[in-house]
Specification:
Helix 3 crosses helix 4. The chain has a domain of about 90 residues: Ribosomal Protein L13p, Chain: A (Alpha-Beta Complex), CATH 3.90.1180. The chain has about 140 residues and is an alpha/beta fold. The strands form 2 sheets. A 4-stranded parallel β-sheet has the order 5-2-1-6, covered by helices on one side.
């Protein structure tokens, strides 16, 4: 028996999935999301080929965190200049840009290479309950 390796010519078309993040724990949601956009939930998964599906996440502003992470987690930003380092707490990010919280968590769970940058474009995160991908008919996934 031969091992099946997907190639760009033989890979199946990507599907669209939808996850409601309301009340979901951030880390567990990010693992599920990373596996979907990598394609690890498919039988034809191959590590060096992008075989993943598209994923839409709604209600990013209502994602849950356990413990004291809401107060303790900080995100660092660097302008590139000397002394240009700044920090924002997770509470501030939830108010200003709630999509960033999920995108940052999912990005950390992808491999650190050029293929991961391409995979990350398949993730669409929205703060509210509505999204702009109704035409793709995403299938709701229950976590």
């Amino acid at each position: 028996m031969k091992t099946f390796l997907a190639q760009n010519e033989t890979k199946q078309p990507a599907k669209w999935h939808l996850i409601d993040a309301e009340g979901q724990v951030l880390g567990r949601l990010a693992v599920k999301a990373a596996n979907i956009i990598r394609g690890r939930n498919n039988a034809h998964y191959t590590p060096h080929v992008d075989t993943g599906d598209f994923l839409v996440i709604i209600n990013a502003d209502k994602v849950a965190l356990t413990g004291k992470k809401e107060e303790q987690n900080k995100y660092m930003f660097f302008s590139g200049y000397v002394g240009g380092e700044s920090y924002r707490s997770l509470t501030e990010m939830r108010k200003k840009k709630p999509e960033f919280i999920i995108q940052h968590a999912v990005k950390g769970m992808l491999p650190k290479n050029r293929l991961a940058a391409k995979m990350l474009t398949k993730l669409r995160v929205f703060a509210g309950p509505t999204h702009t991908h109704e035409a793709q008919n995403p299938v709701q996934i229950a976590l």
